Amino acid sequence: MKSHVIVGRGAAAxxxxxxxxxxxxxxxxxxxxxxGPDHPLIDKVTADATDTDRLTELTxxxxxxxxxxxxxxxxxxxxxxxxSASLLTAARRTGVAYVMLGNPYAYGPVSGPITPDLPLTxxxxxxxxxxxxxxxxxxxxxxxxxxxxxxxxxxxxVSVFSLMVQRQxxxxxxxxxxxxxxxxxxYSAIGDTARTLVAASRNEQAYGRAWHVPASTLSVRELAERxxxxxxxxxxxxxEMTERDLALxxxxxxxWAEMHEVLTKRGHPFVIDYSETEKVLGVSxxxxxxxxxxVI
Length: 296
Hints:
By secondary structure, the protein is α/β, with parallel strands linked by helices. It contains 11 helices and 12 strands.
């Protein structure tokens, strides 16, 4: 029986763990809170993944080490390299395959569809941090791959859409969002993210490079309107947030001060190309209405 360690306990980690367990494979979920879904083949362990010796001990003898974990958004430049170094050391010591969950920040601003072979040219602190994490892993000699997801949506997702659009749209309240309302933007479902992580882990062709999670591309207004329609709510009233709005929110939560770096160029669609994932890994995009149905 195959076995795996997943560092993290959020929606992507939990869905990945369930997919593996439902296939009869053992999973050890590692997080500082010991959270995760209940399943006979899922063991939840309370541990800090930056404790490299403890993480190595937990990873000994398994087939794959997955990581979906990330420090608080505003602390990425300081804390992500520490977490990444611990994970990479544990993978090197134990010889396991290593599957990372990432995102497109490392590419920086891109004109046209974003393909996984583009250079990592981000100059902002979060983008450069993501690029550094992957570059160090790729050069380490570890059998490693990275799965990059666009903005999350779906049941359990934590993202701008889930935090600022989802509940308000279903409740018929005004939706304020820090992105252009009618410019196409790619969204990755939590379920598709988990399926891509599992597929990448099982395909030898996946290692040594990055892959994109299948994504649906539509404007945030279109996505909000489809959600409201499915939920039986009125057509959402939506407004784009101003720089002042974001500045005021930053006084209540550091997360909002970090938004400026990752907002897309005005008027530029943000489109993820996942054709290689579909062709090689066999993972296709889940229809939008199916994903939103899970949210409702």
